[in-house]
Amino acid sequence: MSTKRLLALLSAVVTALALAVLLPASASAAVCGTPWSSGAVYTGGAAVSYNGHNWTAKWWTQNEPPSTGGSGVWADQGPCGGPTGPGPTPTATRTTDPGGFPVSQAQFDQMFPNRNPFYTYQGLLDATSAYPGFAATGSDTVRRQEAAAFLANVSHETGGLLYVVEQNTSNYPHYCDTSQPYGCPAGQAAYYGRGPIQLSWNFNYKAAGDALGLDLLNHPDLVQTDPAVAWKTGLWYWNTQNGPGTMTAHDAMVNGRGFGETIRSINGALECNGNNTAQMQHRISLYQGFVQILGTMPGGNLSC
């Protein structure tokens, strides 16, 4: 082979190698997840495949095919191909790494040894995606204190996470405010207390549902059938509602106002100002026990 032809061949090889480095390799499609089913109920973070793409649900959905239009309930995770597999890992699921939720599964089980199986730890983790600042704001101590404060209050409200719905059924018809323009489409007795902070009244179901992207006004039963939805309604109140207090319970904990102010935000004068010290003290005792489980101190201003 002549020197000229050899140099030309070497030049072609070098050019081909350079292009191989500079040009991106064609990406192979991800493995398709479990096919979407019209009859299945999906909660936030659920992964499916549909029309050659993987999708994850943003919140509860049923009979809504994955699409980027409409209600926007599905998030497109990109094209997929090949055999059906486990699908992508839901991005909304929170983990218990050092920078994540400051309560482990074991600690949660220790706090609620007799809880109703409905109140799952994974449901709580899934619900935190709706309020990413919850138990994730401030120092590690503040984060643990807020998690303990929330769980202590919900433990008090539900008998240690035993009750999913309000036990006094005679109260059920009272929670329909007919003066609201949207009325009570699910029925006059449909808006009784449900979930970890016992969401009640038609206007609260509507407000919580609007904030969470869920139709709780027409489907209040979701709060007692979907663990993540139940936890989300509790976090909705904790993070956004002052209640009878002057600030949200979240703000009380992250701004140093103390556990006592969370009691005021939840039950106000019914327990504070000396009106029911036994109930108030029960909440405080739970909080003190929970911060001990989480390896931190309760801080000041425990009573209201």
TrEMBL record:
Region (Disordered), start-end ranges: 61-99
Gene Ontology molecular function, alphabetical: carbohydrate binding; chitinase activity
Keyword Disulfide bond: yes
Signal peptide: 1-29
Domain spans labelled Chitin-binding type-3: 33-77
SMART domains: ChtBD3
SS bond partners: 176-184, 272-304
Keyword Disulfide bond recorded: yes
Gene3D superfamilies recorded: 1.10.530.10, Carbohydrate-binding module superfamily 5/12, Endochitinase, domain 2
Single GO biological process annotation from the record: defense response to fungus
One Gene Ontology term, aspect cellular component: extracellular region
Key words, A-Z: Disulfide bond, Hydrolase, Plant defense, Signal
Regions of compositional bias (Low complexity) in chain numbering: 90-99
Active site (catalytic residues): 157
InterPro entries linked: CBM5/12, CBM_sf_5/12, Glyco_hydro_19, Glyco_hydro_19_cat, Lysozyme-like_dom_sf
Protein known as: Chitinase
Organism of this sequence: Kitasatospora aureofaciens
